[in-house]
């Protein structure tokens, strides 16, 4: 019998892909109950964060962040001469942000071709990082920020902003302040800080369908200024104000962890002291 050489044979022992698919229907949680990972609702309980700089030797600066099961890595290249001088102000530099999901990062396998969601996330990163970067120090130059999500388990934009800010600082790019991101999902009368993928895409509560939305805030913690705000869904004015305040509190809780990661990177790069 002839052999089909164009067919890629799978392994002899394999598992059904349905085992790795998240259930489409979830039992809605009660606002009084806790969350699946043990955190409490309506409190600034962010996931434990691991951060490290300088993992990519070919890049000028790099950073890796792991928050729960959300894992991102960022590389920064530049400043270098820009390719398209007609689109750049010669008195100021240009910041280019690119966000990509790894094909294996989401429950549904994707491709390396940048989709509409990734373009929106790249624009959100750019808008959040621009107020913090001293681009006037780099005229006629271009700084490239590339973020790849290795695993997507919610709040990916918020952690991508934090990871990119840490990589820019590791690259020695002059900045007014670090940029920290925090996400929130409003679920009726309660909210979920730093939601997971299941919480972001979960069903609404058993109560009313009011105040259902998501908010992502980018904060300059030392200056206490908001550099980026993205919101979707329907929320009352007072609910939105409370959500932004909760996100700011979540950013402040992340600040010591990011400071320690940056301080460790500086100590590693420091020349040894003479004896």
Descriptive overview:
With 275 residues, the protein is an alpha+beta fold. Helices cover 24% and strands 27% of the residues. The chain contains 4 helices and 9 strands, in the order E-E-E-E-H-E-H-E-E-H-E-E-H. The chain has helices at residues 116-129, 156-170, 197-200, 237-269; strands spanning 49-53, 61-67, 70-81, 94-101, 141-151, 180-187, 190-193, 212-220, 225-234. It has a 5-stranded mixed β-sheet with strand order 1-2-3-5-4. Strands 7-6-8-9 form a 4-stranded antiparallel β-sheet, with helices on both faces. Helix 1 crosses helix 2 (156-170) and helix 2 packs parallel to helix 4. The model is unreliable at 24-32 and 203-208 (pLDDT under 50).
Task: Provide a short characterization of the protein structure.
The chain has helices at residues 116-129, 156-170, 197-200, 237-269; strands at residues 49-53, 61-67, 70-81, 94-101, 141-151, 180-187, 190-193, 212-220, 225-234. It has 275 residues and is of the alpha+beta class.
Q: What's the SSE blueprint?
A:
Layout: E1 49-53, E2 61-67, E3 70-81, E4 94-101, H1 116-129, E5 141-151, H2 156-170, E6 180-187, E7 190-193, H3 197-200, E8 212-220, E9 225-234, H4 237-269
Parallel strand pairs: 4-5
Antiparallel strand pairs: 1-2, 2-3, 3-5, 6-7, 6-8, 8-9
């Amino acid at each position: 019998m002839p052999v089909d050489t164009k067919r890629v044979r799978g392994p002899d022992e394999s598992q059904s892909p349905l085992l790795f698919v998240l259930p489409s229907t979830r039992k809605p949680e009660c606002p009084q109950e806790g969350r699946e990972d043990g955190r409490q609702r309506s409190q600034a309980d962010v996931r434990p964060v691991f951060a490290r700089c300088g993992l990519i030797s070919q890049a000028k600066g790099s950073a890796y962040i792991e928050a729960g099961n959300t894992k991102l890595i960022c590389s920064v290249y530049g400043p270098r001469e820009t390719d398209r001088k007609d689109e750049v102000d010669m008195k100021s530099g240009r910041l280019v942000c690119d966000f990509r999901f790894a094909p294996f990062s989401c429950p549904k396998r994707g491709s390396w071709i940048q989709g509409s969601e990734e373009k929106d996330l790249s624009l959100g990163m750019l808008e959040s990082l621009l107020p913090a970067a001293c681009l006037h120090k780099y005229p006629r130059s271009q700084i490239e920020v590339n973020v790849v999500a290795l695993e997507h388990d919610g709040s990916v934009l918020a952690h991508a902003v934090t990871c990119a800010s840490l990589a820019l600082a590791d690259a020695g790019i002059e900045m007014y302040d670090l940029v920290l991101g925090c996400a929130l999902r409003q679920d009726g009368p309660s909210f979920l800080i730093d939601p997971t993928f299941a919480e972001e895409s979960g069903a609404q509560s058993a109560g009313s369908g009011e105040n259902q939305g998501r908010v992502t805030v980018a904060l300059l913690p030392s200056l206490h200024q908001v550099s980026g705000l993205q919101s979707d869904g329907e929320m009352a004015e007072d609910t939105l104000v409370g959500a932004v305040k909760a996100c700011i509190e979540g950013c402040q809780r992340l600040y010591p962890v990011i400071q320690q990661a940056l301080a460790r990177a500086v100590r590693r790069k420091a020349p040894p002291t003479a004896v």
